[in-house]
Known about the structure:
This protein is an alpha+beta fold and 232 residues long. The protein has helices spanning 15-19, 29-33, 102-106, 113-118, 126-130, 136-146, 149-159, 166-187, 196-200, 204-207; strands spanning 42-45, 50-52, 65-67, 72-75, 87-88, 93-94, 213-215, 222-224.
Amino acid sequence: MPESKPTQKCKQCGTCCRKSSPSFHKEDKPLIDKGIIPSKHLFTIRKGEPAYDNVKDGENVKGMLVPVTTDIIKIKGKGTSWTCFFLDEKDNSCSIYQNRPVECRVLKCWNTREIEQIYAKNRLSREDLLSQVNGLWSLVTEHQDKCSYEKLKRLADTAQKDINGVAGKSILEMIRYDVHLRKIVVEKGGLDSGMIEFLFGRPLPKTIHGFGLGVANNLTSLHLLDAQQQLF
Length: 232
Ligand code: SF4
């Protein structure tokens, strides 16, 4: 029996849009600047945050949990799923098709060469989008400084050996600051709560899992996680 030829065009099955959403590149900036893709539908994976590498990036192996090297700004999923917010699930169509980001335009599930070539290049950062916004940008940089993942990694490596020691206490302070800032800018600053994960990345009580640690709901103690709990 002759071998069937590999698919050479998109069948609009929606699988790519259900597995993950695109990361933004500098060419996509006008889509956000003009409000075609509102920032409340975005989230940021901050530099140093462990994240799954879905496309081979340099020496990294596809599917590995690795610290990201720059801000990665992505479209949020629907609810807790990875399905892109803009996928219309009734007919697997893209509700922003004419204005879809560059990764969506080059992605071909039958040949990933083109997306692999652009994947790690020219990533759009929060600085590209916010550095001219007085007040907001200083809040973002202050948070970035106090809650940097480089600092968190160093502290977490020490806290792994002595969970109740100085490093563990510093992590708890960092987490409390992260939680408090997110709350205050919405309640007192009047910011749209949908913007928070774009401005400050994913919440530390969640991403701390990538460092093998968990935090109690009342933010008063840390605990070690087993390998299964570290998956997030
Ligand atoms: S923006 Fe459109 S094409 Fe891109 S992942 Fe979302 S639904 Fe799919």
